[in-house]
Write a structure and sequence with these properties.
The protein is of the alpha/beta class. The chain has one domain (12-64, 75-132): Roll (2,3-Dihydroxybiphenyl 1,2-Dioxygenase, domain 1), CATH 3.10.180. It is 21% helix and 33% strand. It has two helices and eight strands; from the N terminus they run βαββββαβββ. It has helices at residues 20-34, 84-96; strands at 12-17, 37-39, 49-52, 55-61, 76-80, 101-107, 116-121, 127-132. The strands form two sheets. Strands 1-4-3-2 form a four-stranded mixed beta sheet, with helices on one face. The protein has a four-stranded mixed beta sheet with strand order 5-8-7-6, covered by helices on one side. The longest helix has 15 residues, at 20-34. The chain is globular, with a radius of gyration of 15 Å.
């Protein structure tokens, strides 16, 4: 059976957050800026999600403790951008929102030819990336 729906590389990611309301506000704004739509599947007071093209992103309140990209587990999450212009737009938006930008937007030829991205952090310090990778 074939489908006209784009096949995603992964179905969904769920991130555990320390301050639910702060992170929900952050991801509501970020996901809208990247073109994700809010999904109403679960109780919004406990388990919000956003999606695009069959790839979903969820958050949930975590037990106490701080994320570290240098320990076993998650290092960062990269979201796919449709163009370099989209990466640049998000970069401008991140600055207006006073969101910590690690580096970029810029080319990262050490990854692959034409790789263009920006790296930034969520409220818990989780490293996020928005990247345009030409085919």
């Amino acid at each position: 059976m074939t489908s006209a729906r784009k096949i995603a590389v992964y179905a969904h990611v769920k991130v555990m957050v320390s301050d639910f309301h702060r992170s929900k506000d952050f991801y509501d704004r970020l996901m809208k800026a990247m073109g994700y739509r809010r999904m109403v599947i679960h109780d919004w007071d406990h388990y919000p999600g956003w999606g695009t093209h069959g790839t979903d992103f969820w958050i949930e309140k975590a037990s106490p403790g701080r994320f570290s990209e240098n320990k076993p587990g998650l290092h960062h999450i990269a979201f796919s951008a449709p163009s370099r212009a989209a990466v640049d737009r998000l970069g401008r938006w991140l600055k207006t929102q006073k969101i910590h930008v690690i580096t970029g937007p810029r080319l990262f030829p050490e990854y692959t030819r034409g790789y263009y991205a920006i790296f930034f952090r969520d409220p818990d310090g989780i490293r996020l990336e928005y990247a345009h990778i030409p085919q």
